[in-house]
Amino acid sequence: MAQLFCEFEVADCTTKTYPNNTFDVIYSRDTILHIQDKPALFRSFFKWLKPGGKVLISDYCKSAGTPSPEFAEYIKQRGYDLHDVKAYGQMLRDAGFDEVIAEDRSDQFNKVLRRELNAVEKDKDDFICDFSEVRDYNDIVGDGRQS
């Protein structure tokens, strides 16, 4: 019987390297928006995956076209590198991936976000006691409401 092996690592994905054909799956949740050179990262993903490997990315995107001045300022303030869903998918294709499904899952994300925010707000005192300062709590809830 094959032994399953799972390892977690905290590293800078823009500088960390791995041998080709290392991973069965690469998963990223809401982090690649911080990476300025997504094409280089996706080329690395392609090399690092074993044949038949999968990539699952959940990330923030923007609508096609020019964002509103307010949203453009928000993006700049945060240092985000946002693209629309179609462009995101094309970057993966350009990196070598041929079975790319790029979907706008905003409705699903918003439902999950509302559920998570409600849970945090319901247990505000416990959250602040266990994890952070009041300011951190307000930042989390405020950012969630803005999304």
From TrEMBL:
Gene3D superfamilies: Vaccinia Virus protein VP39
Sorted UniProt keywords: Methyltransferase, Transferase
Catalytic activity: N-methylethanolamine phosphate + S-adenosyl-L-methionine = N,N-dimethylethanolamine phosphate + S-adenosyl-L-homocysteine + H(+); N,N-dimethylethanolamine phosphate + S-adenosyl-L-methionine = phosphocholine + S-adenosyl-L-homocysteine + H(+)
GO-annotated biological processes: methylation
Pathway where it operates: Lipid metabolism; Phospholipid metabolism; phosphatidylcholine biosynthesis
Its EC number(s): 2.1.1.103
Top class in the EC scheme: transferase
Gene Ontology MF terms: phosphoethanolamine N-methyltransferase activity
Record bears the keyword Methyltransferase: yes
Pfam family of the protein (one): Methyltransf_23
CDD domains (UniProt xref): AdoMet_MTases
Record's protein name: phosphoethanolamine N-methyltransferase
Organism: Salix viminalis (Common osier)
